[in-house]
Amino acid sequence: MADTMSIETLIARFGLPAIFVGAAIEGETVVATGGLIAHRGLLPVAGVIAAAAAGSFLADQGFFWLGRCARQSRIVARIRRQSAYARALRLIERYPTAFIFAFRFLWGLRTVSPVAIGTSQIDWRRFAILNAVAALVWSSAVTAVGYALAG
Q: Is 28 left (phi over 0), alpha (psi -120 to 50) or beta?
């Protein structure tokens, strides 16, 4: 039987690269755990925030470009059939800037949203700028929560 490692063990072992990958894949759990580990002095808080922001930003950019360039693919077609996709599109149409800034904070919309934005008429530069700012705010907030809960 293979040994399983907890998120905390993976972060303690691999450091900021684990935060980067974890923010792209898992999200809040990894980043909050990074904040907890930073509270213990094992990682720099600024490093956790930067690694989390970069991982989140790049993952969302990738999903955006998947929606933009592979609209007819099976993967995007499967995402488009989800009810969350339709909900994301409605929100994009009504509140494009606010939605781009906030989707990573909305339960159930985290993964489908950048794909939906990619299939919309939103300019890629606008998305990239808002995505970068939102990733930094998100990573700061989630790291702070983990840091505060450790105390």
A: alpha
Exposure of 81 in the CB half-sphere (CA atoms within 13 A): 6
Measure the CA–CA gap between 80 and 151, rounded to whole angstroms: 42
pTM above 0.70, yes or no: yes
Q: How would DSSP label each residue in 65-85?
A: HHHHH-TTSHHHHHHHTSHHH
72: left (phi over 0), alpha (psi -120 to 50) or beta: alpha
Q: What is the pLDDT of residues 87-105, one digit of tens each?
A: 999 999 999 999 999 999 8
Q: Render pLDDT for 50-89 as a digit per residue (tens, 0 to 9).
A: 999 999 999 999 999 999 999 889 999 999 999 999 999 9
Distance CA 10, CA 20 (A): 12
Q: What whole-number distance in Å separates Cα of residue 55 and Cα of residue 61? A: 10
pLDDT surpassing 70 at residue 24: yes
Give me the phi and psi of 137, to 5 degrees please. Answer: -65, -45
Distance CA 85, CA 6 (A): 31
